[in-house]
Amino acid sequence: MSGVRLLVGTRKGAFVLTSDGSRSEWDVNGPLFSGWEIYHANASPADPDRLYASQSTGWFGQIIQRSDDGGRTWEPVGNEFAYDGVPGTHQWYDGTQHPWEFARVWHLEPSRTDPDTVFAGVEDAALFRSVDGGHSWQELSGLRGHETGEHWQPGAGGLCLHTILIHPDDPERMVVAISAAGAFRTDNGGETWRPINRGLRSQELPDEDREVGHCVHRIAMHPSRPDVLFMQKHWDVLRSDDGGESWHEVSGNLPSDFGFPIAVHAHEPETVYVVPIKSDSEHVPPEGKLRVYRSRTGGNEWESLTRGLPQSHCYVNVLRDAMAVDGLDPCGVYFGTTGGQVYASSDAGDSWTPIVRDLPAVLSVEAQTLQ
Amino acid sequence: MIRVALPQHLRTLAGVDGEVHLDAQERPTQRTVLDALEASYPVLRGTIRDHGTAERRAFIRFFVCGHDISLDPTDDPLPDEIASGAEPFRVVGAMAGG
Predict the structure, then answer these.
(1) What is the pTM of this model?
(2) Cβ separation of A63 and B45 shorter than 8 Å?
(3) Mean model confidence pLDDT for chain A
(4) pLDDT over 90 for what percent of chain A?
(5) Homologous superfamily of the A3-35+215-370 domain (CATH)
(6) For a designed S-S bond to A155, which of A177, A179, B53, B56 qualifies (C-beta 3.0 to 4.6 A apart)?
């Protein structure tokens, strides 16, 4: 019988939420790694029992946890993320140069085909890869070594590599995104990279055609159409139809085009979800109403989804890695908030129900479809 | 025997209850105690001292016999009470973050 497993990372531990295919009743397991920040937990598409989690605190640094039994038991694996060679410097908030320093793993992206291969996006921005199930990590330093690297500047959350998209048919081709450097693409397995930010407009940048410096918050892709990418930028929702070579804005009628997460429906590549947030200075839903917006036209035309969501006095945020879809039909959509709620929709967003209401602030949500 | 008292999160990570006991050392120092601790519990590597530099992480402090020795040279000998196991070598998470 089919089911869904949600991997929820919070400020104070991880939670695993499971349901059968009806998605009406949920078991809540956690907190795992209580007291630690879990920036992200993710599952291998090649082995549903293989899970990885990024566990960290300011006191004790970074731990990577791995499960081989679907989250029932975990073991710490390798936690040494050493930059390749002499790390050098990047730009700091005040424009001065600042040494590259590892802070934490923001995002873990397992290979589509090999459970032992997993990519880690880290702060300060770099991409690491493990081919031994997380025991050891090697930097794909062609990214950070790009000629623009010394000009990369952190966003408010740090200089973080938060998005890793692996092409479904060509594993040599990947797209990553860094706040606040922009999006980058490799076509040779991470050896060399190039910025793919043409068409992005950022008011903070005097040169509107600047190659890097864009605060990309999240990029989503539907595996059936890997050349179509959807981006939630600091401001603006954008779309690319050529694998990131060029972008155009599709914010359309959104009440605000600031936000963090963006997700694509599992079966409808033109159906996209965002959660508008009032502004970069306030980070709350417009008008105190928590609304998911759905476009069934690949952008520009958006409808508000509110049934089951608080429509007054709601001032939570939804962070960039905290929205996911499952592969069932109808498509399930899930998101977590900084107020500790995890909302689920089993009808592609038409209606929502809180699975849990009072977790620690939610940092990430991933959805696994179990057969 | 050398006794090491770890903060709760590191005890959980290392899978131990209470203090950790290490083999006796003739002339223990911060460095030799932490080297032995990490050799016995590899999962603690990187959580007390940085990988690579082996420098103490910013929010970690070391106490022996009621004294904060975090800023002392890492190769200074520790008091006899540590060498004899009469007192534990304490690894403490600094109070920070409100």
Answers:
(1) 0.97
(2) no
(3) 96
(4) 95
(5) YVTN repeat-like/Quinoprotein amine dehydrogenase (2.130.10.10)
(6) A179
